[in-house]
From TrEMBL:
Upper classification of the organism: Eukaryota, Fungi, Dikarya, Basidiomycota, Agaricomycotina
Pfam families tied to this protein: Thioredoxin
Identification of the protein by name: Thioredoxin domain-containing protein
Occurrences of domain Thioredoxin (ranges): 26-134
Family as reported in the entry's similarity comment: Belongs to the thioredoxin family.
Length: 134
């Protein structure tokens, strides 16, 4: 038994551990306060996608898993979803501020500034092309 303990200690001593700074964050049904913290005050090295949606919007439901998929595959990309019908959370106010006139609308931010946007449910390859040009 002692030999087994000694062998396991030697094994643990030889193991290496790697820590990465991988940080993927999804802020689902975010409030204006969360938006202000994440998108408006974001850093230059992170891209933040803000997805304006509504529960009744079919194309929004089609786009949602695509956005989650592309953000899961990136280390420097966050996703914030804003329900435009959420009065108490400030969703409708943010939609007016960014002139959202159709759903879904996805606005990209870098360093707290809007850098681009698209309207409508794009296919995964189209969303990836949108991100690649940013």
């Amino acid at each position: 038994m002692a030999a087994l303990r000694l062998a396991s200690r030697n094994l643990l001593a030889k193991r290496t551990f790697v820590s990465t700074s991988c940080r993927k964050v999804h802020y689902i049904n975010a409030t204006k306060a969360t938006f202000d913290q994440v998108a408006s005050n974001g850093s230059d090295d992170r891209l933040v996608l803000v997805d304006f949606y509504a529960d009744w919007c079919g194309p929004c439901h089609a786009l949602s898993p695509i956005l989650k998929s592309v953000t899961d595959g990136s280390d420097n990309l966050d996703l914030v979803t804003i329900d435009v019908e959420n009065e108490s959370g400030g969703g409708s106010e943010l939609a007016q501020q960014f002139q959202v006139s159709a759903l879904p609308t996805v606005v990209a931010f870098r360093g707290g500034k809007q850098v681009d946007k698209f309207v409508g449910a794009l296919r995964k390859n189209q969303v990836q092309e949108f991100l690649d040009k940013l």
